Amino acid sequence: MRDIVVILPNQLFEEHPCLTGKEPKEVEVFLVEECRYFTDFNFHKKKLILHRASMKTYEEYLLGRGYRVRYIEYKKDWREMVAGRRIYIVDPCDTKLLKSLPETAIICDSPAFIGGELKKGKKYLMGNYYKEQRRRLNILMEKGKPLGGKWSFDKENRKKLPKGHICPSISTCENKYIEEAREYVEKNFPRNPGDGDNFIYPVTFGDARRWLNEFIEDRLPLFGDYEDAIVEEEEFLYHSLLSPLLNIGLLTPMEVVERVLEAHEIPLNSREGFIRQVIGWREFIRQIYLIEGERERGANYFENKKKLPQSFYTGTTGNIPVDNVIRKVVKNAYSHHIERLMILGNYMLLKGYHPHEIYRWFMEMYIDAYDWVMVPNLYGMSQFADGGIFATKPYISSSNYILKMSDFERGPWCNEWDELYWGFLERHEEKLRKNPRMGLMMKQLKRRRERKLEKKDKD
Description:
InterPro entries: Crypto/Photolyase_FAD-like_sf, PhrB-like, Rossmann-like_a/b/a_fold, UV-DNA_repair_photolyase. This protein is of the alpha/beta class. 49% of the residues lie in helices and 6% in strands.
């Protein structure tokens, strides 16, 4: 009897570990539209198109290598089909999914991660983890010290995009499977959020590598300078858009890092800044998920209770920067990390929406969103719902930060934002005073109160 290898939508590896060392005649592959990735949330149409198209191209890839493949759509229960049989499957890095696997499952390590264990503790610091990763992997090191004399060039990577600056365009990908996937999604998920047209993402190994090369040549040189910039009319700036490809296996992190390291002509601040995201932040977040994910998932430090309104699916909240980013997400299932953290996450936290509501929205709307990504990033970083397991402070700001980092013009939206900001500080003053990194904000709050009292006395 053939061994069964189950392959999930986020495990489309060119060299699949569960197939390594096995002859095609020895195995039967179950390529599965697992509900966790198709129906557990109302996923953005572009994310569903990505999964369907990449899985169908992967099916063709496996058939071309001589494997027997059963493609199982989301309406069928693949677990019933393998009942009592031994199966091989790559670790999905998803707590709920892992618990639902048959007892007969043999779990293989995932090539989607480079590794680097994080030890359980009371506090976790990404900076320390990143340094250890650099040392362990001997990346951007020179005689035991960081290349360029610094571990991080983050402080240099906060420039505002100059007026009139034109960012390079991003090539699009198209093949018969993308068109088939678009029709499949419109037929089966017509009411899901997002725009299914103008799909740009690679779904093959070749196109994924072409995108990687294009990023290194066209956008990586200025990635460092402008990675934190926010531009109203720019959707991608100098970002790589490689996260959805890394998260489904079309690229592996080590392959990406090695290509970036080969590009010696690229400024060090850009190479280091990008590599930090891959071997540092991405791996760190996965480790936090493995160690603290379940604790984070149940946390709500600020006791926020509001439900997220429908306007977050249409970009009609009435706040100009927020609606601008939402419209980008509706169109592309993507916005870059500062737009996620300092516009959407910032605003959502100030408004007092429940962390579960925010987690669900991000899981639905982003093409690179998976449980291991979003639990730490949302409950830990964006919403500080875990009270600071690894984030050193809540990531909130007044409108000044957004005006400083973007080309949005000052307007009535600033008044709303600032009222929310000061209201948040007032509402949670007792908790925030315990955080040493909130000292400046607390002093500003005190001065604001004093000015109000002075004005009242004069009146």
